Amino acid sequence: MTVPSIVSRSGARFSAGGTRAACLASDDRGGQYVEGWELTADGPRVTTRARLDGEAAMSQIVALEDGGTLISWHRPEHQVVRLFDADGHGRTIATVRGSLRLLPGLGRRGWQATAVSAEADGSSTVQRMTGEEPWLAPVARIPGRLGGAVLHAGRLVVTAVAGGTPAPIVVDPETGETGPFLEPPADGACHVLLAAAGRVLLAVSTGAGQRLGLTEGRGPGPVRLLEGLDELGGVVTPVALDPDGTDVAFTVTRGARSELALYDTGTEELRRVAVPRGKLSSPAAWTGHGLWFPFSSSTRPSGFGWLPTGETSVRMGEEPGPFRESARWPGRLETFRGPAGPIEAVVYGPDWRAGGRVVVALHGGPDRHWNLAFDGFFQMLADAGLSVVAPNQRGSTGYGRAHAEAIVGAWGGPDLDDVRALCGILVAGRPSGTEAPALYGTSYGGFLALLAAAADPGAWSACAAVAPFRSAASLYERAAQPVRNLIDRLGGLGEVADALGPRDLASLAPRVRARVFVAHGLLDETIPVTQSRELVDRLISAGHPDVTYRELPNRGHIAIGTHSGDPLAREITAFLTQDGHRARAAEAAAPMAR
């Protein structure tokens, strides 16, 4: 009897002291677990792996210093919080109405984690989770909604957004007293990011845009803006301060690649660190043993990598338990000629030029990008014989400001042009008479996939969309405020002026000829499930002969699993490997002209 192999990890979090970590894991048979890790001088080590009976995609996790783990599951009307001890034994400690956001505690007995609840009047309540009865104890009520939080000199410093202006607020855990952490800059916005050794790293708004600043000394003190970071380029994310509060670790994203850089705040020197080919993630922890962070390559699920103190290259821990890395399909990067410049894509599976089935996979966001992290679903598609081409078309991050902002005010414009051009390249580069490419996308990628299927009806054989929306305007009317904020920030309500007309899939549905599969989680709080229902109804009423719809009752926005045991992943894989219409190369390429 074979032992299940872990195929995905997510939600990694570090304990307050950085010596422990916890994450969610899934195996290749659909089993879900919470894992506890110990971070030692010899590398990371799994200490517990407990089976979960909740929905991992709807959960939060907190790693505790004693080796235990707190995990919560969201439901429409309540939230369940469970505590797993260092031996992996779990018990429910709280069932609360509404929603709690879990943050690290103070790393001491009596305050194992921090819970933040949003009140009806717009304020937020900070509570401590004690690990014993009573599990939740209110500490302070703060005007506005709360963002990031750090531990600073035994107190909690949080970003509070009141009146639309983010500013750091300090909470005394003993008295519950609150007050401003420092004087805000002239134009207001200031976010707390990281803390160590009595120093706090902040994102500060200045006349020249947002800058990083560091407090001096052990009090709030003045904020010194950091210089010399522009040369990093790419998308830069501060992830950790060293134990002395002197050095800052940054992950740098350049296209689909990840890099690591260290910045000395005293000398203002940057040092780049050698990293294996893959994806660095946040958060990170910096202890006396070194710098720790989640890391994944295209052939192994996320684990914990670390940069030992005094060394110059990142090490990877051994994968615990059975793991068949040699059987994985390594992701590779290819660059295609786009209508406005190169389009980089992550490619899995057989060579797409050989004539087998091809699927173009479109990411969500839209301000996201594909990378070289392990993707269990893409591995499934490749195992089924599909060539997966996952482009970072215009609108994707990691390729400079112009590339990312090309779709601002023009959703379904430049990015759609890139997808259509990519289809023409794929068709022209394959043997005549082979099946037309298929489409797959999630969230915004699902919208874009269906839009491409409508724009060029004869160019695509099939289209699978998970959690798509009908149009940006329709989504704006019904979405929660964070989604509306994203639509406003990225100009989703702008109109594209061309022959295709408004980017509303309800009106474009009659153009779609490819086979269609739509899936949506009933508990989706990002894109309401009614968006997919209306879209499917429109396709059917327009006379489309081949539409499949699946609604997942216990899943949210991340509706598809990443392992072969996930029923939705298996059904989409089967859908994409069915025989579709065979468009000749000339017929498929013709609609690309605009």
Characteristics of this structure?
594 residues; five-stranded antiparallel β-sheet; 15% helix; 41% strand; disordered C terminus
Report what the structure shows.
The protein contains ten helices and 37 strands. The protein is mostly beta strands and 594 residues long. It is 15% helix and 41% strand. The termini are far apart. Strands 30-31-33-32-34-35-36-37 form an eight-stranded mixed β-sheet, with helices on both faces. Strands 25, 26, 27, 28 and 29 form a five-stranded antiparallel β-sheet that branches. The chain has a four-stranded antiparallel β-sheet with strand order 1-2-3-4, with no helix packed on it. It is globular and about 70 Å long.
Topology:
Blueprint: E1 6-14, E2 20-27, E3 32-40, E4 43-51, E5 59-63, E6 69-74, E7 78-84, E8 90-97, E9 100-108, E10 111-118, E11 124-129, E12 136-142, E13 145-152, E14 155-162, E15 165-171, E16 178-180, E17 190-196, E18 199-206, E19 209-215, E20 223-225, E21 235-241, E22 247-254, E23 257-264, E24 269-273, E25 279-280, E26 285-287, E27 290-297, E28 300-308, E29 315-316, E30 332-338, E31 341-348, E32 358-362, H1 376-383, E33 387-391, H2 401-405, H3 414-428, E34 438-442, H4 444-455, E35 462-466, H5 472-478, H6 481-489, H7 505-508, E36 515-521, H8 530-541, E37 547-552, H9 567-576, H10 585-589
Parallel strand pairs: 32-33, 32-34, 34-35, 35-36, 36-37
Antiparallel strand pairs: 1-2, 2-3, 3-4, 5-6, 6-7, 7-8, 9-10, 10-11, 11-12, 13-14, 14-15, 15-16, 17-18, 18-19, 19-20, 21-22, 22-23, 23-24, 25-27, 26-27, 27-28, 28-29, 30-31, 31-33
Helix pairs in contact: 3-4
